[in-house]
Amino acid sequence: MSNSLAPKLIAEFIGTFAFVFIGAGAAAVVGDGAGLSGISAVAFAHGLAIMVFAFAYGSISGGHMNPAVTVGVLAAGAMRVEEAVGYIVSQLVGGVVGALLLWVVLGGAGTGLGMPQLANGLVLGATTVTITPAAGFVIEALLAFFLVTTVLSTAVAGRAGNLAPLAIGMTVTLNIIMGGALTGAPFNPARALGPMVATDNFTNAWLYMMAPLVGAVIAAFVHLGLTRLVREQSTVAGALATPAE
């Protein structure tokens, strides 16, 4: 491991550990059936955790704390493959360790430890909703798409300056307010895997591990396409503005 990579991996481990411990911990404490106020509390716990640690470690590692974000940044050509692999391993380990510590301090898996699950018979207005694995895949991929788009457009592109962590944290919050009751809204393989390992429950693991990666890659392609389009338009505008000789 190079000396330059080591602090990045440590930062990603600590950030993801804290994110899972706080986010999944809030979900475990609030519990099921808490309504919008409970979902909002869980959403802000996740969003604030991401924001704080992105501010803390953004200058060191970029503050990904999510394998989907790392895959998106890699697909956008903003990091090396070997670096991305190290990030993902650190994030997954951090997520598992965070969930296992929750298992210890909460006295076992009885609270669910923030385990994500698809809604079954969720009452919404005058109807009930059951989220199928296919629908859950779409939701998780879309939520990851929104997050990775924000990361690429702010932190990576540098358009938001020092406020990028705020935009990223708010995106996480808004995503969970919308999707929390439907899929648990981890849109983060490390956030999903940690409670799965701690509870020994891998229901729909393929969905929670793969859907965010699909959304991240799509976000990277869209980002690259938009960047190319803006560059071409700027070139054309500059050429039109140049007076003919």
What would you note in describing this structure?
- With 245 residues, the protein is mainly alpha-helical.
- It has 8 helices and 2 strands, in the order H-H-H-H-E-E-H-H-H-H.
- It has helices at 6-30, 35-61, 67-75, 81-105, 133-156, 164-183, 189-199, 205-241; strands at residues 122-124, 127-129.
- A two-stranded antiparallel ribbon has the order 1-2.
- The relative contact order is 0.17.
- The model has no long low-confidence stretch (mean pLDDT 93).
Per-chain topology:
Elements: H1 6-30, H2 35-61, H3 67-75, H4 81-105, E1 122-124, E2 127-129, H5 133-156, H6 164-183, H7 189-199, H8 205-241
Antiparallel strand pairs: 1-2
Radius of gyration: 19 Å
> Count the helices. How many?
8
- Contiguous low-pLDDT stretches (5 residues minimum) are none
What structural category characterises the helix and strand content?
mainly alpha
Strand content: under 5%
Task: Write a brief caption for the model.
The protein is mostly helical and 245 residues long. The chain is 73% helix and 2% strand. It is built from 8 helices and 2 strands; from the N terminus they run ααααββαααα.
Descriptors for this entry?
mainly alpha; two-stranded antiparallel ribbon
